[in-house]
Design goal:
mainly alpha, Multidrug-efflux Transporter Regulator, Chain: A, Domain 2, 2 domains, two-stranded antiparallel sheet, 3% strand
């Protein structure tokens, strides 16, 4: 809400939104196609203009992706939010599944790490040059 003498924050083009959000124009357009972002208005020439709230949403999307959320999951979270439903139970469920997936990945990586260490120790016991025969 703006007071007397204050103007609304300027609207941004797709390019400006992408620059301020630290993504490419293609990423912004992909999010638009998926319904993750929405233009506040359009110019007479058909250019989409975005408010600061869409920049905040863009930051949310990028942060959620860094936490391992898929775009489909982010779409669902945003849809819940737009319907004025708390997305918190949904987010908790997604994170619980992510924890299980992450634990399984970590277990596989730890097992691979142990195999690699055993291989290095076994190879360290071998002489540097082993006759390979005729190649």
């Amino acid at each position: 809400m703006t007071g007397k003498g204050e103007s609304a924050p300027p609207l941004m083009t797709v390019r400006q939104l992408a620059q301020q959000g630290g993504v490419t124009v293609h990423v912004v357009r992909n999010y638009l196609r998926r319904g993750l972002l929405q233009a506040a208005t359009h110019t007479e020439g058909g250019y989409q203009l975005f408010s600061a709230s869409e920049l905040q949403r863009l930051h949310f999307i990028r942060t959620a992706q860094q936490l391992g959320f898929t775009l489909a999951e982010i779409e669902e979270i945003i849809r819940h939010s737009l319907q004025r439903h708390s997305p918190c139970p949904l987010v908790r469920d997604i994170i619980r599944r992510r924890l299980d997936d992450t634990r399984q990945q970590l277990d596989r990586l730890l097992a691979m790490h142990e195999r690699m260490e055993r291989a290095i120790h076994a190879w360290a016991a071998l002489p540097d040059s082993i006759p390979t025969g005729d190649l």
